[in-house]
Structure formats: structure tokens, C-alpha cells
Amino acid sequence: MSLALLSARLGKRQAALEYQWMKRAKSPVSLEEMVNRRVAGEPLQYILEEQPFGPLSIKLRPPVLIPRPETEEWTIRLAELLRPTRMLSVLDLGTGTGCIPLLLCHLLPAGMVRAHGIDISPAAVKLAGENAVLCGFSASPAGNASRNTFRPIQASFLDPFFPHKHLGINPPFDLVTSNPPYISWSEYLGLSTEVTHYEDPKALFGGPDGLDFYHAIAALVARKGFLNPGAVVAVEVGHDQADRVQDIFRTTANIESEIWLDPWKKKRTVVARTRSTIE
User: Fold this and answer.
1) Which CDD domains does this chain map to (predicted)?
2) How many domains does the structure of the chain reveal?
3) CA gap 145, 166 in Å, rounded
4) Are strands 256-261 and 267-273 parallel, antiparallel or unpaired?
5) Which candidate, 176, 183, 156, 178, places its Cα nearest to that of 167?
6) Averages of pLDDT over each 10 residues, the chain, 279 residues
7) 187 and 232: one domain?
8) Range(s) of the domain holding residue 195
9) What backbone phi and psi angles, to 5 degrees, belong to 133?
């Protein structure tokens, strides 16, 4: 009966896959309850309470944004681009689950990453902290130079005085990453209920044209002393925003950038670099 309910909602092939994942899930929730939640439209990742992200398993709870495959792909590519010979100071803006900096901590050599993640959502910061512990990259008060570390912090990078000294993060940074809210109002109205009913709208809606947060990020990295020479800024963008985001970085921050395609050949990531390279 459970599989039949899923099939009616998802189609036979997808239902069979998801039913097997639910059966294998290590969860106190019964299989019947998981099926009922999925039939009601809840995303599978929230029901299973995890999502693969590269080789990591990222813990999930609503309403924190679910990591997407396209984000995983460009994060891995970014790690392959970097060849650090010294410790990199990394700042992730709108960190959500912490998936981007945590995957960088996993992929880059030990002792080379000190990452901080900023998010305005208390739920996101709590979850990112749990993921830091689960993935083995939580920052201890004493510090450990032989480990990569990640620390999430509740704050708004839209604050004109960000970063406040009490946050414990200080420019300059070697790498700034972000998968910011970039859905425009017209696109938001067309999203499926699986997204709008469960994921935090503050992690999705990027203003009338979807570009509000790119203006803020460009203004932030344009500040004198915010970036080290050779710093990299990598931001995910909506399917039709890459060229406009490039213009924003060029005009506001006076730094050139390139556009990376995702596996589906969509312009997905804008990667901006200051004049020298990370060594």
C-alpha cells in the first residue's frame, strides 16, 4: 500500500527508488510515516534528514535550504583550482547547512583552511554547527593548526558594519564563497510547493530581480582590506543571471571574473579574482 501511494504521487520508477531509500534510512520515524510525509509533498531530503554532498553526508532539517548537485559540482571544481601553500581564510556568506565550507575543508590539505560561515537564520547556524561536528571540522577554542576548521556564526552580511569585531572574524580573506538567495519575485511565484512550503523563503528570494545579494557581496569585497591579494570570490547564480552578476562585480568591486557552466550547461557560477593568484 505504501509503495502504491508513492507511485501515485511520483510515478513507479521514482517511487521505487525513494521507497528503498526510506527503508534503508536510520530513522526513528516509521516507514509508513515517511511515506505519508512524502505523499504530502515534503522533500525526501528532510524526511531522510540528510543529503550527500561530495563524499560528505550533510544533516538536514527544514527550513534550512537543501544543498543542490550544482552547488556540489562547483565547490569541488573550486577546490581543484586552489593550490594553497599557506593557511587560507575562508568566508561563506549565507552558509545554510555549511555544505560549501565543509566540503572545502574535506577536499583541501589539512591545516590549510580556517573557514567561517555567516547566516542570519538561527536554525541554519545551529544545523551548520552540528554538521561541522559530524564532519570533523568544528573549531575548538584552543585551535589546532593541523586541522581544517569551520565555524558558523549568526549575523547579517547586509549589515553595513559587518563584520563586527565581537564576531571573531577579521578581514582580509583569501576566499569568499556564497550561494545566496537569487530567486526573483516572478520565479518565486512559479516554484513548486515542495520548495515554497518547506524551504526558508529568506534563503531563496533575492529581491525583485533576484540580484540584491550580489550587489551586497560586491560592495563588501570592494572594501579596502577585505580581500587579500590573490583572493577568489565564487558565487552561485540563477540560470539567467551570470552576465549581470559579472557586471556587478566589475563595476562595484573592479575585479574581473569568469563564468562556470554546471553539468547541465547552464551558467551557474561567477568566479572573480583579484590581480594576483593564491600561491
Assistant:
1) AdoMet_MTases (cd02440)
2) 2
3) 23
4) antiparallel
5) 156
6) 84 91 87 92 95 96 96 98 92 98 97 97 98 93 77 95 89 97 93 92 95 97 94 96 97 94 97 70
7) yes
8) 69-273
9) -65, -50
Task: Say if pTM beats, i.e. exceeds, 0.90.
Answer: yes
What whole-number distance in Å separates Cα of residue 50 and Cα of residue 209? Answer: 31
| Joined grid coordinates for residue 84 | 594553497
For residue 89, give the CATH number of its domain: 3.40.50.150
C-alpha cell at 135: 564532519
- Short-list 195, 179, 173, 155, CA closest to 238: 179
CA atoms within 13 A on the CB side of 62: 15
Q: Which residues pair with 153 in a beta bridge?
A: 118
CA distance 258 to 234: 10
- Classify 86 in phi/psi space as left (phi over 0), alpha (psi -120 to 50) or beta: beta
C-alpha cell read off for 81: 583550482
Q: Are residues 63 and 198 in contact, defined by beta-carbon separation less than 8 angstroms?
A: yes
109 lies in the same domain as 25: no
Q: Are residues 74 and 28 in the same domain?
A: no
Looking at the fold, whether 23 and 151 belong to one and the same domain comes out as no
DSSP-derived 3-state class of residue 134: helix
32, three cell numbers: 509508513
Cβ–Cβ under 8 Å, residues 113 and 89:
no
